[in-house]
Amino acid sequence: MTDQPVRRAEALVVLGCCAAASLAAAVWSWRHGAMLNYGDAVAHLHIARRVIDSHRPGLSQLGSVWLPLPHLLMIPFVAVYSFWANGLAGLIPSTLAYLAGCVGIHQLARRWLEPLPAAVTLAFFATNPNLLYMQTTAMTEPLFVCEMIWTSVWLVEWRAGLDATSDGAKNSRCSRRLLFLIAMALAAAVFTRYDGWVMALLAWSSIGIVLLRRGKLRSRAFWLATTIVVAAPVIWCVYNAVVFGDWLDFMRGPYSAKAIELRTASPGGGPPHPGWHDPWMSLLFFVKAAEMDGAAATRGNLLLIVSLFGTAWAELIARRRAFNWSLLLWLPVPFYAYSLAYSSVPIFLPVWWPHSFYNTRYGMELLPAFALGLGFAAHFVLTAVREFKPRWTKYAATVLFALLLLNVVVMLRERPLVYVEGTKNIESRWYYEKEIPPVLRALLATRPGGTVLMETSVYPNLVAFSGIPLRQTINGSDMEFYQAALAAPAAHVAIVVAFDGSEIARAVQAHPEGLTVVRRFASPGRDAGTIYVSDTFRSMPAAQPETTAPVR
Fold it and tell me: What is the extent of the structural domain holding 484?
């Protein structure tokens, strides 16, 4: 066991190895066109882009449901049009989060473990195929996992520092610094995923309880840091109130998870998803997703058992050295058991009914807990071998790393669960993203600067692949412009893209004057789309509304 800080050379080796793995995954994802597989990844890029490229640019374009930090981090990169269109704008912050997470999980493991078992922790985490793929996309999981890890690192260091007896003044300064680091990590988590709200509440309340027991609750540093933690959710609620008129719009608004579940549920069709109002079934689905995200199909239960054994072993040998604070990494288990049951957040797995793919990536949040548990399990094995067969230590270490490599190879052969879900996701969009942009480009070539009426929330890449800025479209996020265009499409835009059943399609049916059908597109299982051109747009300029309305 070791409390020695990680040497710089060791840290550089860790960073270099993880950067190599990240680069290899990025190259693979680029060559296979996988960066934009997830519709949510495309939507995250779209939200970031419209903050700087829309009829009403500004923070109101961040919307009301998805939390803002991932989009804010992407804004400098989506400003480059090609990065927005090809997905690199999402890869850059996700990759940086992945690298920071790798460094953090290694540092956390080295708090208690020697280099070999700590390397097992790092190897399992850093080479996970699902995480490697996800860090090439604009999804929020790599960022949140990084925030979870570093919150745990700094919590452990803070708690261990309270028990240190040497150089009290130095420890006091270090404790204050760590409090602010923890507060900033928790605030970042609050602005990344709603899991972070629960994590912030539990972590900061625990800090307060410890300080109260030690008679240090009046610490000025604690209360200043508290303002950072408390301000994060308050700011988001105030933003929702000011922009959308409801401080809980993200929970009960028309685009919330609850509202979507109610719109998509079949009347009289039974529970909308497995685990609905059933915490035990929800727990099973989340744990199964975590196992499938972390190990090959037949080894998920083994991964869970070994990780739990390692965690129990850690309780025995490291409890007095602040290990309990790292148990925060297991928080996703109760969080998702509750969320799946009562918060309209389903998970579908191919191995269980309804034998589909949906939100399988949520299980990745347990990767740090699995990794740290495996590291302690490796410590147990290596300690036992040294005790009884010292000469076999290097062989035991070789076997451990061989097993990790075998797990990766088998997962790649089976195809990573999260990647497969992404391929299923893009299948529903691929035809339209391939066929519609060339037609739009050809039409716009004969109508320079022409405005396009289209709904960009369903197929945002139609704009990016057409080579036009978002402000050259009128869409649902341009509320007042959008309503005016719906009332007289031919008078306000040069081109209309309408999908059957949409608000735009109904507007075209109600006001077809001056519109000519150019081409109709149909894909099995999806609403058909139609492109129209206006015969009157040039002679009737669009109205310019004066009011500003919020965007969701």
Answer: 428-539
